[in-house]
Amino acid sequence: MNEVSKPVEVPTSWYNVVADLPFELPPDLPPEPKDGCETSSLKLQLPLALVRQSIGTERRVAIPAPVLERYRAWRPTPLQRATRLEAELGTKARIYYKYEGGNVSGSHKLATAFAQAHYYKAASATRLTTGTGAGQWGTALAVACQAFDLECKVYMVASSFQQKPQRQTIMRMYGADVVASPSPDTEAGALLLSKGQIDAGNMAFAVTEAMEDALSRPGSKLSVGSGEAYSILHSTVIGEEARAQLENAGEWPDLVIASLGAGSNFGGIALPFLQEKLRHGRAVRCISVESTACPKLTQGVYSYDRTDGSGITVLQKMYTLGHRFRTSNMHAGGLRYHACSKLVSALFHHGLTEAVAYPQREVFESALQFARLEGIVPAPESAHAVHGAIQEALRAEKEGKSPVILFCLSGHGMYDLSSYAEFLDGRMESVVVDQDIIQSSLQHLPRVTS
Amino acid sequence: MTRPADSLDSDASVQTRSLIVDALVQCEPGVNDLPASKLADDLPLGPGGLGVSSLLLLHVFVRLEEKLGFAFDDATVANAKFTTVGELVGFVEDVLRRKQLGSSSATGNPAPGGS
Predict the structure, then answer these.
(1) At a CB cut-off of 8 Å and minimum separation 6, what does A153 contact?
(2) What is the ipTM metric for this complex?
(3) Least confident of A283-297, A353-367, B3-17
(4) pLDDT at residue A226 greater than cutoff 70
(5) Is residue A31 within 8 angstroms of chain B, CB to CB?
(6) Is there a contact between B83 and A41 if contact means CB atoms under 8 Å apart?
(7) Is the pLDDT of residue B114 over 50?
(8) Between A41, A64, A313, which is nearest B115 by CB?
(9) How far apart are the first and last CA of chain B?
């Protein structure tokens, strides 16, 4: 490993890209009306602080002292140059990576988890519920809830629950109650289980269960880890640090690359660099890497859709494969969400960012190469960024260019060794979703009148 | 009991309704035609009434903060019950009253800011 040596301070504020957008974000729409709805009190799920951050236009948002104190336990995270990978590829590109796996949750998710736990606690919540795919977000929230003295209930997509038992263990170590989704703990989950649809779960459904749970218990609130504007905002601490670290190294990235689940990882590293493009016209290409098993930006449509399966949350305009889309059994569970956040979708729609999709066998080949050369096992999600960076370096070499490439190694893959075993044993298949499946799912998009 | 706003004897209450309508229109252009005088106390905020979602109501609070120049206390809002227009108006009036009396219990924060 070749860490960029000059130290930087942990940023004391997050960056809000909305302040610099040359367009308005599309408004949210109320959920579709349901027949027979009775009058009942509105159950406010979000702390006002997070709503202020979601619709605010101030460029800098101060990080509260209790959150900053937690950040300083593992931040600033290292920015490293992948010199052995560069040599192996025979590229003149300079490849840097920001490593976010060096905390107890093993991923970038802890940045927003601590912030959310702080704000929910201040709004008198006593318990948080959530849905998680591969378990990175669930682990981060469990850790943050323990730190801020909150109970935690995690609904984990059943396929990941079975693939990654160690994830269950670490969440339980931090006091969380973890169940496979669909679960018998909610009406929605019990209904699916009664039909024998044990494997029907996806991220949207896990969040649906978490929502039902939160609404049924006083003091409980739903917390989500990726698609919301405030999650992306909190994650910009990553890009803020990386920018300072690269400046210290006398570098500016031509390309910033990150995997895309719903948007917090990609937005977290990319937006502070995009700021320079928006405000000062400085050239930078921000490339999100998704899976061919869940290609919302590259094959989805830009349309209003549900953010989860509950039907009671607002509709948002975003790139989506449809809220009924069921992702095939892929290993990057964190990339399984059916849509991309409203903010990152709008950036892509307006041509400010780019997107590519790769199949998982190719991604794992790159991940193994990176692990052997650089000494860190990438999480399957992060491996998409590794692969994207390698592809861009190889492309640049063919074109005779020598760009500076920055990618976010958002988490380690030490809980994902069964996935690597499957790859090493030659049992892994690349999942490329069938167009008919996408079109079938898109038929269920909500009807919206302009 | 249905009580149109224009029958109230309190100017403050009419002003509060006006503020709420302005904030609603700002958050949801679909309610553009809504006169404050039609905001009856027992009109449900959610289904069967204004059709406001819980998230939209939170947006309304943030817009109210901008108009009023102070921040509502997160915990106070989180613990309040909002079923009807009357409850929302009553809540905001109560906060304003406490603010005028200099109490910190309802409105602790001086300005919305980026917390």
Answers:
(1) A127, A128, A129, A130, A176, A177, A178, A179, A210, A213, A220
(2) 0.83
(3) B3-17
(4) yes
(5) yes
(6) yes
(7) no
(8) A64
(9) 40
